[in-house]
Amino acid sequence: MALFIPEWTRASGRQLQLKRVLNGLDEATVVRKPLREEDAAPELFIEHAQRGWLALAVVDTPFDGLDARQLFAVETRTAFDARLAAWRAALPDALPLLLVLWACSEDEVSVLAAQIDAQNVRLLSRERYLERGAAGLAALQRPLAADEQDALRTRFFPESSIPLPSVARRRFQRNNQAVLSGLFLDSQQEWASKLDLDLPDEQAHTVTDLSVRLVNGVAGSGKTLIALSRALLLAEMHPRERVLILIHNTPIVADIRERLHRARGSLPSNLEITTYSAWIHRQWRRLFGPFLAMPADPAYLPNLVRSLRTRWPDLKLAESQLIEEFDFLNEMLVTSEAEYMDTSRAGRGFSLRAKERREVWRLFEAVTEALQLAGLRMWSAVACEVCRAPSHCALERYEHILIDEAQFFAPSWFHTVKLALKPQGRLFLCADPNQGFMKSRLSWRNAGLDVAGRTKKLLRSYRTTQAILHSAGTLLARAVQADPEHYLEPDFTGMEEGAAPILIRVDSPQDAVDRAVNEIVELVTTRGLPLSTFLVIYGGDTPKQLLYRRLCAALGAKRVWWLNKDKKQPPEGYGPDYLRLANLETATGLEGGAVFLLGVEGLLNVEEGDAREADARKLYMAMTRASHRLVMLTTEPVPPDAQPLFRAG
Ligand SMILES: Nc1ncnc2c1ncn2[C@@H]1O[C@H](COP(=O)(O)OP(=O)(O)OP(=O)(O)O)[C@@H](O)[C@H]1O
């Protein structure tokens, strides 16, 4: 069956008849309806990679109103001629236009056909349209030149153009023929971006909880593009509705804003793109007042835990584990000891016996209370406090909330997001379970989201090469359980082969810094690559200040955008060319033509268990940031089974 973009959810009787025929077209066919009210737009466009294009318009005027010989039809006939001329003028000459004259018999259509001299127009009665069926439509389609297709889509479907300039190269080919122009979303992406645009009224009333959609896609499959494209479209279609995009990571938000600024200048005033953290702080202040205080000293909380835990001397967990568990309790919105005893801790990395759980709960209560007395809270408690506020009237509300990187959102975060949706508001999630999953193996259902039957999977990566994705995927598969909710198998069809990641063995973290900087300088000077091609990701023991200083010394003091330092904007504002530098923990969503990974050896050589899985996902995320060249610098030998996945540097 053909792919309808957008889906036809609200079809009238006439449209149902029209659709019955369209349904018979094969699945390589796309049936698009223009979203904008425009006189020169026919009702729909049919596209097929081989057969080409066909425009279709339905004309309701009866024969009496169209027949040029009829005395009283002058006005309606003139209007019809003007419309036809407008359609033809807007369409490429080579694109056939089919007019279905819904209210005319076949004989009447023959009379009218003789009166019309427009080029490349075919008239059919409703009866003939239904009779000829999908095969009749297919026979009318004609190929268009690439520039004509681009012009057509730019005019009638501008919302499907790619909203961000890419810093990575495009990787796969459409039908193994023409290389994608890179101007537009592919049909699956476009379909996802236009889901539920016209939820019918009856359905809207039956949506009891909320309307949610999930796009689950492998790294580089265009999830961020889809979210942006949809948000821009919604903001334009509904200028009085508020649209919010939330992303977990600060650097990717800054990066997107910079790229959007380059591509479009300003954003629509009803669209906001922000980090969850900035957003929830704002919501908290709206509910509780201006003073949202958290411990300023990073040692405050561990010290507090250390002093209070003496009441439970049998508790053997490290302070860091206890704090992690408190975060879990906050994120799961656990309200009582009994509830905690019933909560699944699957994937938590360490087990707890019932007695330990009880003690952890009591310590958690004691810590929370002590913080409260000091007017403080843990970061993870902010969302919780918003959820538990006596009234939510002061919250900002939105008609549409879109979440990118939803795999990193905790249940309490989703809860706050739902509270901020207006009645009948829509939630749109993009996630890659391969890159992590809510810090533990939770399901969407655990997070209070029913995505069954409302999930779209994207398995092809535009960003990276087969070789890089294969290496990253194989390392990940060593560690994760084959659970479809938490692992997506990429589809390599049509992707550029590329070369395996480069592995460089060095003696120390300082050597890794020197070598990476030298390699980058070499590529910049010998190949003339712009700095924006490069993304340097550091983890673990990398001396980050040294890395930053060396990069600045080699490339220019203001040419390095350290995303964890200059959090909002590049050092000299938007415009100049920058190399980007990011901490491993906050590199999600970013991309680079050439990516250098330092300090990730700890992720390769990990023990069995849940920590191994979390680390493997992190490494997968970091490796798949690269579109073309991936260089990994390590101070330790790579495990023998992983060696064939790399080439020596
Ligand atoms: N249809 C397309 N045509 C050309 N390039 C595309 C297309 N879709 C995505 N891309 C490019 O692929 C890269 C990855 O896209 P994007 O960042 O949206 O993917 P993602 O799924 O969010 O990735 P990740 O989850 O790994 O961060 C970008 O450079 C984007 O411009």
From TrEMBL:
Keyword Hydrolase applies: yes
This protein's record includes keyword S-adenosyl-L-methionine: no
Domain of life: Bacteria
InterPro entries xrefs: DNA_helicase_UvrD/REP, P-loop_NTPase, UvrD-like_ATP-bd
A Pfam cross-reference name: UvrD-helicase
Residue span(s) of domain UvrD-like helicase ATP-binding: 196-471
UniProt keywords, alphabetically: ATP-binding, Helicase, Hydrolase, Nucleotide-binding
Binding site for ATP: 217-224
Descriptive protein name: UvrD-helicase domain-containing protein
Originating organism: Massilia suwonensis
